[in-house]
Amino acid sequence: MSNVLTIGWFETKRYLGDKVALFTTVVMPVLLVVLIGLSFGSTPDRLSIGVLTEDPGPAASEFTQQLESANLDVIDYTSQDDLARDIRLGFITAGLTVPAGFSAAADSPDGQATVTMSIDQTSANGGAIASAIQSAAAQFAEQRNAVRVATNALGTSDPAVADAANTSAQQVIASTGETTVDETTLGALNESDRNGFASAVPTQLTLFVFLNGLLAGMTLVESRRLGVSKRMLATPTGIGPHILGIGLGRWWLGGIQAALLLAIGALLFGVDFGNWGAVAVLAVVWTALAAAVGMLIGSLARTADQVVAISVPLGIGMGMLGGSMWPLSVVPPFMRAIAHATPHAWANDAWIAIIDGGAGVGGIATELLVLSAVTVAMASLAVFFLRRTLSK
Amino acid sequence: MTGSAPPKLHPAAGGATHSPPMLSQALLIARLDLHRRLRDRSILLQVFLAPILLAVIVGGAFSGGGGNLDATIVIADADRTAVSGAVGAALTQTNTTDGESGGVTFETVPVANPDEASALVDSGAADAVIYIPAGYTAAVSEGEPAALTVVGKATSPIVTGVARSVADGINTRLRAQYIGTETAVRVSEQTGIPLDSAQLTEALNAEDVVVVADSRLTNTFNIMSFFAPGMAMIFLFFVMGTTARSVLTEQRDGTLGRVLAGPTPATAVVLGKAVAVYVLGLASMLTVYLVTTFAFGVDWGDPLGVVLVILAVVAAITGLSLIVTGLARNEEQAQSMTIIGTLLLAVLGGTFVYSASGPLSQARAFTPNGQALMAFIDLSAGQANWQDILPRVGIILAIGVVSGAIGLISIRRGLQP
């Protein structure tokens, strides 16, 4: 056991001396967490709509102001192309074009002002956003509509009647009781809905600890190339402790990385991780798993270049599949099923259970069991393959 | 330097040029280098397979219309009048009937009190409820104050917001009926013009002053056309770090020294390796472009524009890889600088983050891959043509030229005996 610890300690010391490695372990994940946390912030609470106003008139600006108070997140655009692009990209739910001549049409006795709502052809949100826009349009045109109803109902276009209607409509509106909407919400907001960092920290931790663990395979390849591994085979220490030692070094490093990210999340960005016992156990199991997979790759790859060539696409791909780049709640059910072929999905499920569901160790037992089983399997395979490679 | 004189046209060759020795040397080195690289399966994995595979994962993940709401809003009717019934019926009519998933589905449920309405949300039967209290329509039709209640979940604020908009719409519509009628009655009394009830109904049902027209955008954007080129550029940069390593390896093994002892200038060696990397990069990006277009039906937009961006961004990435070659003193350093550079470019260029807001959207503009991503987005989602993206192509090329020049100078300096 002490052999394993000694090898592990030397591995850690060697790694900590490498400034570049430190950069990828420490600086990069922190930078990513900050950027992603800031970019996504908290869950949006309104549908967003891009508004392109081609009419400089007062009625047009009155109308767009009305949109702001209609539960829509209004973003101004100056070009139709940009508007269409961002709708297609899904950055905004819909676009609304207020055409030139809007004000003139709205203010003329019999004109009709048409605004055009643009929405992606695959979007199912059209109805929801249309009702919000229609509601805003009706509120904007309340007095104008009343005048129009009165003059049409009386079948006259006499300006004097229109004037009288205008005055009456104003009076009627002033004396009409307010119609309001009371809002009650049930339940409490999840931590990850409130604080963007509550999802950015665990998902980036999963992604980067794993990626760094995979790249640790390079150490094993180097040790094989230099003949260290073969010499170990000849010593009483044996190959098991050798690979465990290297893995242990990476495990600790993963632990440092995880601890750093969690500390930054909790202290700097105010994330409430809930049950710290469960957080610690999950982080320990995850870092062990990452190190084990790294050892497996290290025992299979022939060159350090190969380790990199395999690790980067594998780390990113599994992160994407497993919900480290976007939550699995947004993907279709079949992708969610496929996702659980990656350990990432189990780890991310466990993080959500801890942070949003307040789960303790017992609450994530299934996930921990799966992750531990994968770790043991990977470590055993690593020892098996390394022994086979070295005996050739 | 032997090849500094400009190439001369050979009249007998019908306009063909005689390559100056340095250029042909560089091309020979490029060919050999390329040949060697293409034998390495891990490079093939990174530049051809990985970007396509990752793009497929993204395509699968977002195949279900990820941006669509999928919610049930229940109209809980305790008023039970003809008007409140009509309100519910009008809303359920807007439900999509073509079996398409997602979107907001309206249902009407008669209830007796607000607690029953809340229970619908609590039990999960509804994502949000619009509660119409008893006496609501009577109050609105008399111009009295009236209130609807929206009950939603704290965890789905957007759905609650949509329910609120719908409730606002109900209020506004009924209120407008009252105000229109009341105004018409008053004007009729003032002017003595008789008010015909049929004409009033017609006027109330006529279109509003402001009409909302619905238009659907065609040429749906496929999220793969964001992630595929993004990933391809990142892997490309990663692989290009191998230029640095191949120069340093040759330096270590002494083969470079032997080459330089001959008549081959250092510039030809570096240029040759850069050309090899450029061709490899071009092949990678074009493969990703063609495979996603033809196998997955992704529309990247104006092909000329796409090719221009690819040509420029591969040049920029080649330039950056030359800087790594020039600065790295040994293979390990080259490897580390490549990893850091790749990750920085990936993060700052916004390869992983599909978002329009936040500091990332600004950082993107300062990286060649970020600029290229924006150009690809303009071409695919914005339907820009090749002229529109020329400014971005110019910026990307400038990054390539400047970094390439810095790289070449520092490499030459390093290779001087």
Instruction: Sum up the overall morphology of chain B in one term.
Output: elongated
Largest sheet report of chain B: 4 strands, mixed
Count the E strands of chain A: 5
**Total tally of structural domains of chain B:** 2
What is the chain-wise order of helices and strands of chain A?
HHEHEHEHEHHHEHHHHHHHHHH
Main interface: chain pair and counts: A-B, 124 and 134 residues
* Distance separating the two termini of chain A: 27 Å
Mean pLDDT of chain B: 81
Uncertain runs of chain B are: 1-17
Mean pLDDT across every amino acid position of chain A: 84
Largest sheet features of chain A: 4 strands, mixed
How does the SSE layout of this entry go?
The complex is a heterodimer of chains A (392) and B (417).
Chain A: H1 2-16, H2 19-40, E1 47-53, H3 58-68, E2 72-77, H4 80-89, E3 94-98, H5 102-107, E4 113-120, H6 126-140, H7 142-153, H8 159-175, E5 179-186, H9 191-194, H10 197-215, H11 217-225, H12 228-234, H13 239-268, H14 276-300, H15 304-321, H16 333-339, H17 343-355, H18 365-391
Helix pairs in contact in A: 1-13, 2-10, 2-13, 3-6, 6-7, 7-8, 10-13, 10-14, 10-15, 10-17, 11-14, 11-15, 13-14, 13-18, 14-17, 14-18, 17-18
Chain B: H1 21-38, H2 41-61, E1 70-77, H3 82-92, E2 103-110, H4 114-122, E3 128-132, H5 136-141, E4 146-153, H6 157-191, H7 197-205, E5 210-217, H8 224-253, H9 255-261, H10 266-296, H11 303-327, H12 331-348, H13 359-363, H14 368-380, H15 390-415
Parallel strand pairs in B: 1-2, 1-3
Antiparallel strand pairs in B: 3-4
Helix pairs in contact in B: 1-10, 2-8, 2-10, 8-10, 8-11, 8-12, 8-14, 10-11, 10-15, 11-14, 11-15, 14-15
